[in-house]
């Protein structure tokens, strides 16, 4: 990797280029044109935004999952474009910034082809963590997290042995309802829930941050990435989003990674890992200006989705896939106005009760559990 960084630009296939992570990644590329070049871009709809990116970057491959490509553009169309882009011969790294389980096949295809996957698409690891990590080992590929908490843990762990780790402590902003009375949260509107205090992100992860489903997804993601058992992964609320996570070692020493909340830093680190390069675009951290850092426990009773998700992770098998799919469907229904905020955990709990015991060892079984959970939530939307 060092020689690649110094000799010629790394070809990156950017899946989900029009999203929040996708556009942050393009800003990182724009600051380092000698190091990174997007060789493939994909999006779902938002043709105009994609066309603008294509005009700027002129990638060898362009794919749209849905929507009509411009006439004569040569763009590829349909869900298969994700796998095609992920295995493009010019791409050494695949930055998967797709939202939801839709990103899973592309991650697996890239790993089978021995590519490094810079993974923002955490749902990939929640749906099929064991299959994904086994595929990485078998194919010679690598999964490097983009998620800020996991990037922090990776940085804290650098050079340490797994048996030296006692505990991971993942920070959570607490979302927009951190201080709301429990009874009021269930009636929160879409506008309330989209008003995240510290991060500007896509709508699905913003709702996940309001329910704390996002933290459950991240605990499962950390379990698979770092091989740490669930009883040694904790969550603490930290409203400033400056400390991105902590690792406690067996001697009692605790290491944290800090920085101003910006996804451009974890994106850059995922691309250069295990090296670092100079970057003038990421806002600098000033400890005095940042002021005091505050930590508090999670209000588990007010945010039941967190416990539902972590319990699904502990249960293993199909349960995490069911949790993820039910959450995706419930969030989509909330955003469309057909579920209330308080119904999101209820519908996830219903799907888990009905389906969590399904088999979930193979990819086929996990995909079937995902589909069943979606049907389960959708069929109850009018109830
Ligand atoms: P977003 O909604 O802003 O963007 C999603 C991108 O994926 C878009 O380019 C969209 O066109 C594409 N897409 C959507 N549905 C698709 C489908 N079915 N098939 C193929 N492509 C599809 O989302 P985001 O906030 O950028 O998040 C992307 C991923 O990164 C999510 O998994 C999220 O949890 C994770 N993540 C995001 C942030 C953040 O700050 N935004 C931080 C950490 C992790
Ligand atoms: Mg995160």
Low-pLDDT residue spans:
none
Tertiary shape: globular
Strand content: 5-15%
Radius of gyration: 20 Å
Mean pLDDT: 96
- Can you count the beta strands? 11
How would you write the strand order of the largest sheet? 4-3-2-1-5-6-7
User: Sheet with the most strands?
Assistant: 7 strands, parallel
What features would you highlight for this structure?
single chain; 383 residues; alpha/beta; seven-stranded parallel beta sheet; four-stranded mixed beta sheet; 17 helices; globular; binds nicotinamide-adenine-dinucleotide; binds magnesium ion
Description:
It is built from 17 helices and eleven strands. It is of the alpha/beta class and 383 residues long. The strands form two sheets. The protein has a seven-stranded parallel beta sheet, sandwiched between helices. A four-stranded mixed beta sheet has the order 9-8-10-11, with helices on one face. Helix 15 (319-336) runs parallel beside helix 17 (363-379). It is globular and about 55 Å long. The model has no long low-confidence stretch (mean pLDDT 96). The site of magnesium ion (MG) has 4 residues, from helix 7.
């Amino acid at each position: 990797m060092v020689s690649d960084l110094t000799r010629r630009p790394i070809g990156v296939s950017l899946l989900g280029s029009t999203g929040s992570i996708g556009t942050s990644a393009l800003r990182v590329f724009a600051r380092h044109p000698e190091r990174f070049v997007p060789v493939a871009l994909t999006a779902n709809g938002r043709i105009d935004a994609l066309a603008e990116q294509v005009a700027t970057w002129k990638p060898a491959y362009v794919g749209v999952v849905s929507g009509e490509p411009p006439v004569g553009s040569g763009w590829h169309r349909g869900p298969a474009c994700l796998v095609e882009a992920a295995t493009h011969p010019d791409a050494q790294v695949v930055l998967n910034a797709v939202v939801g389980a839709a990103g899973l096949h592309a991650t697996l295809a890239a790993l089978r082809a021995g590519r490094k996957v810079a993974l923002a698409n955490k749902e990939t690891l929640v749906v099929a963590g064991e299959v994904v990590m086994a595929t990485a080992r078998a194919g010679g590929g690598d999964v490097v997290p983009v998620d800020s908490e996991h990037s922090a843990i990776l940085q804290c762990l650098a050079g340490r042995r797994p048996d030296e780790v006692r505990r991971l402590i993942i920070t959570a902003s607490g979302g927009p309802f951190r201080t709301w009375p429990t009874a009021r949260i269930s009636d929160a509107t879409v506008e309330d829930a989209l008003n995240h205090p510290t991060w500007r992100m896509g709508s699905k992860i913003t709702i996940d941050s309001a329910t704390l489903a996002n933290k459950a997804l991240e605990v499962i993601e950390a379990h698979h990435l770092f091989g740490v058992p669930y009883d040694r992964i904790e969550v603490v609320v930290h409203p400033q989003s400056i400390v991105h996570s902590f690792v406690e070692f067996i001697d009692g020493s605790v290491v944290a990674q800090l920085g101003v909340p910006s996804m451009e830093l974890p994106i850059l680190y995922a691309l250069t890992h295990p090296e670092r390069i100079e970057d003038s675009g990421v806002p600098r951290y000033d400890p005095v200006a940042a002021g005091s850092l505050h930590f508090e426990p999670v209000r588990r009773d007010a945010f039941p989705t967190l416990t539902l998700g972590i319990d699904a992770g502990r249960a293993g098998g199909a349960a995490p896939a069911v949790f993820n799919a039910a959450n995706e469907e419930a969030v989509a229904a909330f955003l469309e106005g057909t579920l209330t905020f308080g119904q999101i955990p209820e519908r996830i709990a219903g799907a888990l009760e009905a389906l969590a015991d399904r088999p979930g060892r193979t990819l086929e079984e996990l995909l079937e559990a995902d589909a069943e959970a979606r049907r389960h939530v959708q069929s109850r939307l009018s109830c």
